[in-house]
């Protein structure tokens, strides 16, 4: 199996996706969620705004229509640029999934000057053209995904920007005709573009067609309206474009394919989605069965929003079964994705106002915060989460651990506790909660209860210890451990000290160097969570060169900020 490099059109060959040379291509991609369509949770607006239309309305209420237009123009210009796609290529991605909002390409049916006609808007096409040019320059496939169709295709309101006061996609023949016309227009524009990987016709339909109690269509056995629309779109595309792959998603967030198979078109791929379940064969067996029964490729068109451990295990499972994938999303205000957008004070003030926790900001204050947010979505202004990329690529094929920072030790050094090694759970660290399996278990588990700094199971919070980088490990539990690879310039005896705070229960930890357990220490109780103490294990022998330290929690309940290493005496030659 060879990765896509300089080949052209992708196509279906039996149960495989192949390039023009007939080589199988495993798509390793990411979705550009939040760019052309803002979902509230990505902006920390879950529970505050229903969907993008509501976000825009709230912004207009504070800063006015003209300023709102300025903000959205900056947002669209900055959120995805060539530097983003260059980064994806450098990290190892070979494809991009573009979630499109129809309203950047055409007017809503109720806003058309002439009923039944389509007014085409240049903005969406120009943005897509630019993205395609950056993908072509990097030999990355671009998959077009209609994430928000006219009227919206489901009852999960934020996903498709649904306004329930208006007719949905399924309640309006005009919305369906506009959807078909949009795909025809896209096919006309991109028919001869070899780096278009395909057309993802309709994202995550979740609609009960036959039973209103089945709100998201998970039990629908026919899915007749969905099948008809997908077929009508396919016919429209094939009148223009016979070459590009068509990706088809089922009902129930792309997981219910009853009534949809087999496809009439022979260049079609089943696109399923996978979130918050176990990463075992049974979690994907149903789709493997579809691949075998219908001799059609399958693709995990969307997944993510979990821990690094979950990412590694999911991608390993998929690739072992020759299934391509597209993660979600590239960036947002949150740390469980490759790029984290910073939360600036002005935007935070606006958030707190909308939540009823702060007074209304002035127009100038709110506009400044929003424009700073639009500036901060530029890739160079985001926080790069190297642990996420490491988990998605290197760790999929290796259990080797690597230093998070160089950790060079001369005579003295301070290690930030949160800078434990990069690597898999069970190799670089162990934590009691390493992923969220709520779909399988019914229990919503926060793997990193502080939701900060890194995306492993290790719980990380902010702290005020002057010997730290502003972060500490919290919610420590018995049996958890962290590993640190350090490079020591001088062999000798060292004091190794631990900075901790423990208001409620005295902690205890154990130090191991290589295979040797050095000893354990009790940690003192402190008067509050902000009072830090130092506990030392004296005269620990470290060799010149690479040493691996492991700190194991024997009694938890404390917070842990840094490790101090101090040379006492050199080993004599």
Automatic annotation (TrEMBL):
Keywords: Glycosidase, Hydrolase, Signal. The keyword Transcription does not apply. One of its GO terms (molecular function) is beta-glucosidase activity. It comes from the Bacteria. The keyword Signal applies. Residues 442-566 form the CBM6 domain. Belongs to the glycosyl hydrolase 5 (cellulase A) family. This is Glycosyl hydrolase family 5. It comes from Flavisolibacter tropicus.
């Amino acid at each position: 199996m060879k990765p896509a490099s300089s080949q052209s059109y992708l196509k279906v060959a039996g149960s495989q996706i192949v390039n023009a040379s007939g080589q199988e291509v495993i798509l390793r991609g990411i979705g550009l969620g939040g760019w052309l369509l803002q979902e509230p949770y990505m902006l920390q607006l879950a529970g505050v705004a229903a969907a993008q239309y509501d976000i825009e309305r709230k912004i207009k209420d504070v800063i006015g229509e003209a300023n709102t237009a300025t903000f959205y123009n900056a947002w669209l210009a900055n959120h995805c640029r060539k530097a983003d796609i260059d980064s994806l290529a450098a990290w190892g991605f070979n494809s991009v999934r573009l979630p499109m909002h129809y309203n950047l390409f055409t007017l809503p049916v109720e806003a058309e000057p002439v009923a039944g006609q389509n007014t085409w808007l240049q903005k969406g096409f120009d943005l897509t053209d630019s993205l395609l040019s950056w993908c072509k320059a990097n030999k990355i496939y671009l998959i077009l995904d209609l994430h928000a169709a006219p009227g919206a295709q489901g009852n999960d309101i934020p996903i498709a920007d649904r306004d329930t006061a208006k007719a949905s996609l399924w309640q309006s023949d005009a919305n369906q005709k506009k959807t078909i016309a949009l795909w025809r227009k896209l096919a006309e524009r991109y028919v001869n573009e070899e780096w278009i990987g395909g057309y993802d016709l309709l994202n995550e339909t979740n609609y009960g067609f036959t039973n209103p109690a089945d709100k998201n269509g998970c039990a629908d056995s026919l899915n007749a309206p969905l099948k008809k629309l997908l077929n009508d779109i396919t016919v429209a595309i094939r009148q223009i474009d016979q070459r590009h792959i068509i990706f088809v998603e089922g009902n129930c967030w792309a997981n219910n394919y009853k009534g949809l198979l087999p496809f009439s078109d022979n260049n079609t791929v089943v696109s399923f989605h996978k979130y918050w379940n176990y990463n075992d064969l049974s979690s994907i067996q149903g789709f493997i069965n579809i691949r075998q029964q219908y001799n059609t490729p399958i693709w995990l068109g969307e997944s993510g929003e979990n821990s690094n451990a979950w990412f590694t295990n999911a991608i390993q499972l998929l690739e072992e079964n020759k299934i391509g994938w597209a993660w979600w999303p590239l960036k947002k205000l949150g740390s469980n994705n490759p790029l984290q957008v910073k939360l600036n004070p002005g935007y935070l003030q606006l958030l707190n106002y909308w939540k009823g926790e702060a007074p209304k900001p002035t127009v100038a204050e709110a506009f400044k915060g929003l424009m700073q947010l639009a500036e901060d979505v530029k890739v160079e202004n985001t926080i790069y989460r190297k642990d996420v990329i490491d988990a998605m690529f290197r760790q999929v094929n290796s259990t080797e651990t690597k230093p998070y920072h160089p950790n060079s030790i001369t005579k003295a050094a301070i290690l930030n506790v949160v800078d434990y090694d990069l690597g898999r759970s069970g190799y670089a660290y162990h934590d009691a909660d390493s992923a969220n399996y709520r779909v399988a278990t019914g229990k919503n588990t926060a793997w990193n209860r502080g939701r900060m700094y890194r995306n492993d199971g290790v719980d990380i919070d902010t702290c005020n210890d002057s010997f730290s980088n502003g972060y500490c490990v919290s919610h420590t539990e018995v049996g958890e451990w962290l590993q640190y690879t350090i490079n020591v310039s001088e062999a000798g005896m060292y004091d190794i000290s631990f900075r901790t705070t423990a208001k409620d229960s005295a902690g205890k930890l154990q130090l191991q160097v290589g295979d040797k357990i050095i000893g354990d220490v009790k940690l003192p109780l402190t008067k509050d969570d902000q009072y830090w103490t130092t506990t030392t294990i004296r005269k620990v022998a470290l060799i010149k060169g690479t040493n691996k330290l492991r700190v194991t929690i024997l009694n938890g309940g404390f917070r842990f900020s840094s490790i101090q290493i101090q040379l006492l005496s050199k080993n004599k030659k």
